[in-house]
Amino acid sequence: MAPRVEIGILGPLRVTVDGRAVRLPAKQQVLLAVLVLDHRAVAPERLMMALWGEDAAPTALRTLQSHVFQLRRALVLGGGSDPMSGAHVADVVPGDSPWIETDGRGYRLRIEPDAVDASRFESLVTGARGHAASDPRAGVTMFTEALGLWRGQDVVDVGGESMATAELDRLVELRHGAFDELVRLRMSLGETTEVIPELRHELRANPYREPLWGSLMRALDASGRKAEALLAYREATEALRRELDVEPDEELRALADRIREDSHVRADRAATPEITSTIADPHDDPTFAAPSDVAPSDIAATTGRRRGRGGLVLVGVLVSIVLATAGTRLLPASGTSSGPSIPASGAIDPGPAGTDLVTLLDADGRVGATTALGGRPGDLEVGAGSLWVGRPTDGTVLRLDL
Fold first, then answer.
1. pTM for the whole thing?
2. CA distances for 26 relative to 33, 101, 158, angstroms
3. Are 394 and 373 in contact (CB under 8 A)?
4. Which helix (H) or strand (E) holds 101?
5. Mean pLDDT confidence for 259-269
């Protein structure tokens, strides 16, 4: 039985014969890659362009023939015997290799389609798209298997040969589309949180792909992480402006506007928040030292008087709180309304459960300052021009200057 040759071009060139790796010199790698990407006979002129570009020497045709001879020999040596007759490799005439044939128009690679990773990739993507509507789980499985054939983001080197380069570009675009469709399928199946780190990883390699930014924003928004979704939009805008001098496309801008509008509506609904203070009177805690520029009366005016063992008590964790719009005062537990208001029109979002970020949003939902707290935030109070944030992890209170 003839040895089985397998060729991988979705990444650096990889060639195996019956599972044994075949190492090829750089020129022969380019030669084989061009033959793999074109199922027809490839003219010598195209192969010479791939190998040497416009700098081909007068002896380039003879050198090309030598490379073809050596490539055939390498494939035969990789199998250890003549694939046609089983003769020992020393008796093989490389020109008789069944994998690379010569005709009047050039050279052709004869290999089963499923022996090339790019062919398997395309078949899996076609199958996944066929199952996406009727059986999303099967679609996810096939898309995942297809994308798993890619060994990194790079593709094989084909020199300066234009037709092979165009075919590689088509495969890369097909990969991008398959990834986007996989993310949409997984989100439709409820795997919204799970796709976020994968989207971020993909964006590190493809920071200018706007569909990726859109998917990340949707996933963050659906996970209740609106501030992070708007931060992602700002990152996308900065990347596109800095490197390409373009603005985000209409779809991405509309998505950001929708998220902002939703944040604004939520802020309006929270104009009279029902908040019960769980921060004890700081005067009851002998270890608490008020900032020098804040009067004790200002602190007391914005805190409730709930006592507990050990002085300062933080009860529970607020997963998400959006404070009032301009002019609305935070109501302390005592029921008075003398506490200071937020100094600017907007809202404060301490982020989703499990994060340590507090983000300031303006009235239009645009992201302002974001501060890492070093631990998940607990209860919040606004007073004396500051945001007071409890940290349940170590029983402390942080003061953030608004």
1. 0.64
2. 11, 21, 10
3. no
4. strand 100-103
5. 70
* Cβ-proximal residues to 205 (8 Å cutoff; 6+ apart), any chain: 153
Q: How far apart are CA 223 and CA 217, in angstroms?
A: 10
User: 3-state SS of the chain: helix, strand, coil percent to 5?
Assistant: 45, 15, 40
Q: Which two tokens stand for residue 201?
A: 């990883």
> 326-357: b or e for each residue (b if 16 or more CB lie within 10 Å)?
eebbbbbbeeeeebbbbeeebbbbbbbeebeb
* CA–CA dist 125, 109 (Å, integer): 24
Which two three-digit tokens encode residue 196?
A: 């976020």
The owner of tokens 């499985």 is: 141
User: In whole angstroms, what is the distance from residue 81 CA to residue 86 CA?
Assistant: 6
Q: What's the chain's length in residues?
A: 402
pLDDT value of residue 35: 95
Q: In this predicted model, what pLDDT tens digit does every residue of 312-343 receive, in sequence order? A: 333 333 333 333 333 332 333 333 333 333 44
Alpha helices in 132-161 (DSSP H): 136-147
Token pair 């199958």: residue: 127
Cα distance between residue 370 and residue 356, in whole Å: 10
Cα–Cα distance measured from residue 157 to residue 26, given in angstroms and rounded to the nearest whole number: 9
How far is it, in rounded angstroms, from Cα 402 to Cα 388?
10
Q: Find the helix or strand (DSSP H, E) in which 300 lies.
A: helix 296-301
Structure tokens at 401: 């200057």
pLDDT of 284-314, one tens digit each? 444 444 444 444 434 333 333 333 333 333 3
CA distance 390 to 399: 9
Nearest alpha-carbon partner for 44 in 108, 94, 98, 97: 108
Phi, psi of 78 (to 5 degrees): -65, -30
Query: What is the pairing mode between strands 367-372 and 106-109?
Result: unpaired
Query: In this structure, which amino acid lies at residue 377?
Result: P
